[in-house]
Design a protein that fits this description.
Blueprint: H1 2-18, H2 31-54, E1 58-60, H3 66-79, E2 83-93, H4 96-128, H5 135-153, E3 157-167, E4 176-186, H6 187-203, H7 209-220
Antiparallel strand pairs: 1-3, 2-4, 3-4
Length: 226
């Protein structure tokens, strides 16, 4: 048992080394390229503000203006090359508090589905090659991994800002809201969270250590979160 625990510690350490953030890309640009980058960022900012105003979106659950919230959001993304934007959204909700919670749940569930879907086919194919491993154990690992990613990823999603817009009441239907929350997801921390989920899921199955190393490689691979 101690051997297995040490094996998992080595896997987690390796994963963290592989996902260490590279040197800030902006710092490697020439002054001309930095000016061009800032120009493009300004265009992106203005375009997004125009989109929000045209769509009648307002900032939710904050005393900031939508302009300040978006500028701060872009600043957070630029702080670390591992930071990416991840969105949770919900429609037809009424209470702001309920909308906000549902948007978080949507983001967590969607990330877990993406994380599981990224490795499910390859893991199932690899494990089915082991004639001694029952299908029930394969299904148990996949389901357990997705559930545990949900439990872990909440800790690496940082809420940045939310927007909301009203859907007018119609005959027989009350007014509702559309709600979107923009999170900062740090891919390095998310990778570590996936590895913790994998470790816990493997402990609850009969999957051998020799297969765990290959599974860890699949789990540690990055994937698009758009």
């Amino acid at each position: 048992m101690s051997y297995i625990k040490n094996f998992f510690r080595i896997l987690l350490a390796a994963a963290l080394l592989l996902t260490v953030a590279p040197q800030d890309a902006a710092a490697q640009l020439t002054k001309k390229q930095q000016r061009q980058l800032q120009k493009e960022r300004n265009k992106q900012y203005k375009s997004k503000i125009k989109e929000y105003k045209k769509g009648k979106w307002q900032l939710g659950a904050s005393s900031r203006t939508i302009e300040v919230a978006l500028l701060e959001h872009y600043a957070k993304l630029a702080e670390d090359d591992n930071n990416v934007e991840f969105i949770g959204e919900v429609s037809q909700c009424q209470s702001i508090n309920v909308c906000r919670q549902f948007a978080l749940n949507n983001a967590v569930n969607r990330y877990a589905t993406l994380a599981s879907g990224n490795v499910k086919g390859r893991i199932e194919s690899m494990l089915r090659a082991d004639a001694n491993l029952p299908q029930v154990e394969i299904d148990k690992f996949i389901a357990g991994y997705e559930n545990l990613v949900q439990a872990e990823v909440g800790s690496v999603l940082t809420e940045s800002y939310s927007i909301v817009r009203e859907t007018p009441a119609t005959r027989g239907a009350p007014a509702t809201r559309e709600y979107k929350t923009f999170f900062i997801l740090n891919e390095e921390k998310a990778g570590a969270a996936r590895m913790r989920a994998m470790e816990r899921s493997l402990r609850e199955t009969q999957i051998a250590v020799r297969e765990a190393e290959e599974i860890s490689r699949f789990v540690n691979e990055g994937f698009k979160v758009d």
